[in-house]
Amino acid sequence: MxxxxxxxxxxxxxxxxxxxxxxxxxGSEGDFEVLPLHAPLMSTIRPGVIVVKESGAxxxxxxxVRGGFADVNPAGLTILAEQAIAVEDLTAERLRSxxxxxxxxxxxxxxxxxxxxxxxxxxxxxDLQKTLG
Length: 133
What we know:
There is one protein chain. The protein is α+β, with helices and mostly antiparallel strands and about 130 residues long. It folds into two domains: about 5-85, F0F1 ATP synthase delta/epsilon subunit, N-terminal (ATP Synthase, domain 1, Sandwich); about 90-130. It is about 30% helix and about 45% strand. The protein has helices spanning about 90-110, 110-130, and strands at about 5-10, 15-25, 30-35, 40-55, 60-75, 75-80, 85. β4 and β5 form a beta hairpin. The longest helix is centred in the C-terminal third of the chain and has 21 residues, at about 110-130. It is found in: Cell membrane; Endomembrane system.
C-alpha cells in the first residue's frame, strides 16, 4: 500500500514523524481521514483522538490532541497541535485536569464568540472523557 509522510508537532517537541498509510483527524467541522494523494487541505482541529495507521504496523496508534491545525499538502500531513499525548498515557486524572482547565478558560472568556468557542471546547473534552471511559 502507498504511504505518505506524517508529522505531529507540539510546542515542546516533534511527537511523531514517519510514513503512514492513513490518519484520521478530529477536524473542527468533523473527523476526516487523510490517505495517500489526498487533496491539499488546511483545517483547524478540535480536542479529540488522532488515529494513525503506520506503514507495516499491526495496530493503529491513537493520540489525544487538544486542538491545533492540520495541513495536507503534496509532501504529506503536518499537524501542529496545542498539546498531544498518547491515549494509553492519558489517565482519568489528566483528562479531568484538561476539562477543569477548559472550564476555567471558558469562565474567564469575554465576548459571545469567544465564550461559545470556549464552551464548545469544554463540551468536546467532556465527550472525549465519556468516550474513553
